[in-house]
Amino acid sequence: MSSVSKIQALAYVVVESSNLQAWRHYAEQVLGMAAIDAPDGSLLLRMDERDFRIAIVPGAQDRYRASGLLAVDQPAFDAAVAELKAAGIAVEAGSIETILARRVKDLANFIDPAGNRHELVWGYTGGSAAFASKLGVTFKTGDYGVGHTVLPAIPFEPELALFKDALGMGLSDVFNFQMAPDAPVIRIYFLHAASGRHHSVALAEMPNPAGCVHMMVEVEKLTDVGRAYERMRAHGVKEMATMGEHENDRMTSFYMMTPGNFAIEYGYGGLIIEPESWQTTHTKQVSIWGHDFSVGFR
Ligand SMILES: [Fe+2]
């Protein structure tokens, strides 16, 4: 039985940081975003007309903090809250401060079975100002949201059930990853929301101390991927995977470390699918070409 996604997109992500200056520099000089100081002491990273797509909040740790899951509308938000509660997940109403900070009409906090934090939200209430990257980058966002996130997912089954059944997200692709022929299988499942981005969330059966295996942002031109790759090298940012093209979503991208201790995939040309008719694929390899992840272990 296929359910209808209650989630429109990954609207934003929240990152905890002990060094906002490092994020400001990284966002402006490497990613091509704009970094704005918020009155509450956080740093808001802009990449489109919205007030932010990545919120950097001060804290003791440098890690991924939460995923902002945008509900399709208020009924979908209410239905998702009800389904999460029915599945035994503790859902807490967001504080007024957080609702204002995230520029949303309503917000519910929950922690999934693998320990990942989420902010389920609906309705954008912030500003809409033209965004001009100082580095000339145009990001692909809008209804598609910030991009995608790959979350550590142990235990795997209840984690998958939450996204598929409670939130109604569709399974785009199933990948059973093996480092070597005799190595254990690591499941990586890719889920789409209503926006049609090939995946907004992926679940990877592996631990990650920084709370995120990687997040992805997409640009409108392949040229901007190449230019970002050069900025990574010029600023001495650690490369986590060489340029390559993924088999499942056909994204041409590279991976680099962030000041948050998780990687960011910087890509172009990801598949947009038709959620109603998409049949789950079973890919056999990470990439058609490139994406040498061994560079990240050097
Ligand atoms: Fe990715």
Commentary on this structure:
The structure is a single chain. The protein is α+β, with helices and mostly antiparallel strands and 298 residues long. The chain folds into 2 domains: 7-124, 2,3-Dihydroxybiphenyl 1,2-Dioxygenase, domain 1 (Roll), CATH 3.10.180; 142-297, 2,3-Dihydroxybiphenyl 1,2-Dioxygenase, domain 1 (Roll). 19% of the residues lie in helices and 37% in strands. It has 5 helices and 18 strands. The protein has helices at residues 20-31, 74-86, 96-102, 156-166, 222-234, and strands spanning 7-17, 34-37, 43-46, 54-58, 63-71, 91-93, 104-111, 117-124, 148-152, 170-177, 186-192, 201-204, 214-219, 239-246, 252-257, 263-268, 281-283, 287-290. Strands 17-10-11-12-9-13-16-15-14-18 form a 10-stranded mixed sheet, with helices on one face. An 8-stranded mixed sheet has the order 2-3-4-1-5-8-7-6, sandwiched between helices. A hairpin with an 8-residue loop joins strand 11 and strand 12 (201-204). The model has no long low-confidence stretch (mean pLDDT 97). Residues 148, 150, 214, 216, 265 line the site of fe (ii) ion (FE2).
CATH superfamily of the largest domain: 2,3-Dihydroxybiphenyl 1,2-Dioxygenase, domain 1
Question: Total helix count?
Answer: 5
CATH level 3 topology of the largest domain: 2,3-Dihydroxybiphenyl 1,2-Dioxygenase, domain 1
The CATH class assignment of the largest domain is: Alpha Beta
What's the mean pLDDT score? 97
